[in-house]
Design brief:
mainly beta; Immunoglobulin-like; 3 domains; seven-stranded mixed sheet; globular
């Protein structure tokens, strides 16, 4: 069990953390922009967090700058950033900037794209985020343990022009497997977790705390950013009495639309941005329920309305769509076809996972040979076929993919994603332009599955 280390917080740090969790955006307000480098610092270290409520003991965690989740980093689209990451752990680490289209050397895969950050050492990540949206950061070294003990945070890239909303809210969702003494349970990488659905926890937190009330005001329009940083838990959120409109998936704007069946399905590593017009009644309360797992529904949060009069009588009469990011358009007529087949797991031949018959275990190393190679600038039409009995959120590094079909049916709403959820026996087709050279990971983001072999590499020359 981890040694408890008392976290020392200054008043300034507490204010920074609070600002990172919830920020208010006024209509018409602009953001200062500049070409100068945005300098930031992060430290991976040990700490404590109150994950189970005020009456429970604090839990020993690993965290960025001692907070769970780590400080929300807000940066500007097109402005260079330089982030110095210090390793205060007693093992190697890295940081993967999940969903950002960045240079290969900044991708954070140990051995493949960079040397691991040794204990007591630092690494400087430098890149210019080309896309606005909701992204996140986490380790890619011993990731099952390091992510499972708390190392993660959200990276928000702000749009060049302000979005017409009243408030910008973030819910970073995590689940934890805690023992009877409220400490993180041992047993990472068990054969049972690896062969089945992964390490699903028994405590869910929103922004590092137990589910609680979310204060709202009648008549306001809220942009709610949802990010799932769990190791394995898939969520399906229903908003009682409300109609969330999906405006972005994995940071990339899509055609605004209501979720299928009224549920927002959010697998590990996925992000969904929704717009919510708060049309509930003042003083009333409305539950947000996660009911993905049969018979295990619970209330994730409660929209608690202020008793005051509505901010406006009618929903805000402004466009719902977000400005599109500069993603290169695939040329499907000249696309290079590739296929990956997901294999293994319990009820699929054993505990080991494989892609096209090859198991790549762990987090990454220099000897990983590419599954396929693409010429720079070529369009890749990628088919992913799930032959297993389990769900897999497949994450591509360095790119976003335009999802074209699922089980032969067209996928609507121009959905670009870096993490695509495949149900058992699903087949999806997606496309991207291979404009970013290097060796790139493609893996399941159920951490147990990745570590047990559901991972591959492709090369762009």
């Amino acid at each position: 069990m981890d040694t408890d280390v008392e976290c020392q917080f200054s008043r300034r740090k507490l204010l920074q953390v609070a600002a990172g969790i919830i920020s208010t955006t006024l209509l018409g307000a602009g953001s200062s922009r500049g070409s100068e480098v945005d300098e930031r610092e992060l430290k991976a270290t040990r700490g404590r967090a109150n994950l189970a409520g005020p009456d429970a003991p604090w839990t020993a965690v690993w965290a960025y700058d001692g907070t769970v989740p780590g400080l929300t980093l807000r940066v500007q689209q097109g402005r260079p950033v330089r982030i110095t990451v210090e390793n205060g752990l007693d093992e190697d680490t890295t940081v993967h900037w999940h969903g950002i289209r960045l240079p290969n050397a900044m991708d954070g895969v140990p051995g493949l794209t960079q040397p691991p950050i040794k204990p007591g050492e630092s690494f400087i990540y430098e890149y210019t985020p080309p896309d606005a949206g909701t992204f996140w950061y986490h380790p890619h070294a011993n990731s099952l343990v390091q992510l499972g003990r708390g190392l993660s945070g959200v990276l928000i890239v702000e749009e060049a022009q302000p979005v017409a909303i009243d408030r910008d809210l973030l819910w970073m969702l995590q689940d934890w497997r805690l023992s009877a003494d409220w400490q993180i349970a041992p047993g990472f990488g068990s054969v049972m977790d690896a062969a089945m659905s992964g390490r699903v926890g028994n405590v869910v937190t929103v922004n590092g705390a137990l589910p609680a009330d979310q204060p709202v005001k009648a008549g306001e329009r809220v942009r709610l950013r949802l990010a799932n940083a769990s190791l394995a838990r898939i969520m399906a959120l229903r908003f009682e009495g409300h109609r969330p409109i999906i405006v972005a998936l994995d940071g990339q704007p899509c055609d605004p639309h209501e979720p299928e069946g009224g549920r927002l399905v959010l697998a590990p590593a996925m992000r969904i941005d929704v717009l919510l017009d708060m049309q509930g009644k003042p003083g009333k309360r409305y539950a947000v329920v996660d009911d993905f797992y049969d018979g295990l529904a619970y209330t994730l949060a409660t929209l608690a309305y202020d008793i005051g009069p509505p901010l406006r009588a009618y929903p805000l009469d402004m466009p719902l769509a977000l400005p599109r990011n500069p993603l290169p358009e695939p040329d499907l007529a000249r696309a290079k076809r590739q296929e990956i087949v997901l294999q293994g797991g319990m009820m699929g031949g054993g505990a080991a996972w494989a892609i096209n018959g090859i198991s790549m275990t762990g987090d990454g190393h220099s000897a990983m040979m590419p599954q396929f190679t693409l010429e720079r600038g070529a369009t890749c039409l990628l088919t992913m076929r799930n032959e297993t009995a389990w769900w897999h959120p497949m994450h591509i590094h360095g790119f976003s993919m335009l999802v074209l079909t699922r089980n032969g049916s067209p996928v609507p709403n121009r959905q670009w994603q870096d993490t695509v959820l495949l149900a058992p026996k699903d087949t999806i087709e997606c496309a991207f332009v291979a404009d970013n050279p290097g060796d790139w990971m493609l893996h399941c983001h159920v951490a147990d599955h990745q570590m047990a072999g559901l991972m591959t590499v492709f090369r762009v020359t």
